[in-house]
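Researcher: I need the complex structure. Ligand is adenosine-5'-diphosphate. Inputs:
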Amino acid sequence: MKKYRVLIVTSDGLVPPDNSKDLSDEVKGSSSWKMEYDVMVAIEELGHEVAIIGVFDDLGLLRRTIEEFKPDIVFNLVHEFHGVGVYDHHIAAYLELLRQPYTGCNPRGLMLSRDKILAKKLMQYHRIQTPRFLAYRLNKPFRKPTKLSYPMVVKSSVEDASLGVSQASVVHNEDKLRERVAFVHEQVQSDAVVEEYIEGRELYLGVLGNVRLNTFPPWEIVFPDLPESSMPIATNRAKWNRKYRLEHKIHSRAAYKLPEAVEKQIPAFAKKIYRTLFLTGYARLDCRLRSDGTLFCLEANANCDLSLDDEFALSGDKAGISYPELVQKIISLGLQYKPAWKRAEALSS
Ligand SMILES: Nc1ncnc2c1ncn2[C@@H]1O[C@H](COP(=O)(O)OP(=O)(O)O)[C@@H](O)[C@H]1O
Ligand SMILES: [Mg+2]
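Model: Output:
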């Protein structure tokens, strides 16, 4: 196999420390740089040469490192710039302007999938089931959601990783709705999206590819031991707080005993969402399956979490793709991706 020079670029503060390999699994497992560590070790195991930097607000650092290290590919793990999540697609765009091959999703796909309102409008246009919704823009007066039924879920239109999603995000009346929309506006400083709550199983669908797409077996998060008063949703706490997860036995696993018709429908459903949102590289689609067998897409996560023990890698493993193989496939897809500059070059030669 060809050996490459791979530069991992992540956000400032997420570069594993020099002694990371000597740290216990416990420390590594609970660190903020777990994903970067897993990816870095896999790239080393694959025999590639690897370097890693964290960027905060300095594009100069990125540019200089690329000039000096001359990577064949940048492994793009950046999820924010200047501390702003919606700037992530600009990093992919910057790499493209430098004519630097990179892994993961292209700028357009990153932008469309991050914006839940825009993504849902596109899905609706293409007749992909997504919960009925209303957009509550920042600085616009509150209006009654006359066409939606309670309960509803109130989320930021652009923040991911369940930021701002808690039990209070599910509302059952207009007072609570009004309160939660104000919370998102004030605390997250973004538009809010309000959608009908879909009662059912929560499925995560992994997709890998640029043109020819590979879908992974559906993964499911389960909440077997929640207090009566809690809704089974992937809140910030349910996703990231290990103690809370253990306490309530929250975990994810391959989804089994899905209705046959649903099982059959999933690959085409996932591919249609992926293509509708112009995604490339890899993504995880967060979905809900209602008891009548209707599948809904809640959102698409381009450049999703790649940690060894997160849903995407686990479902890839179930599909027979080991973690280093997965990382290698992501690198190969990045090298194969044809941005506009490559097409322009082909035209002029
Ligand atoms: N319409 C909905 N119906 C049921 N649960 C929802 C709905 N929207 C969000 N949730 C719950 O909230 C979690 C986070 O919402 P999601 O749309 O995935 O945003 P993000 O992961 O970007 O915060 C979901 O994984 C799901 O458990
Ligand atoms: Mg999600």
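Model: Summary of the prediction. The domain at 198-336 is CATH 3.30.470.20 (D-amino Acid Aminotransferase; Chain A, domain 1).
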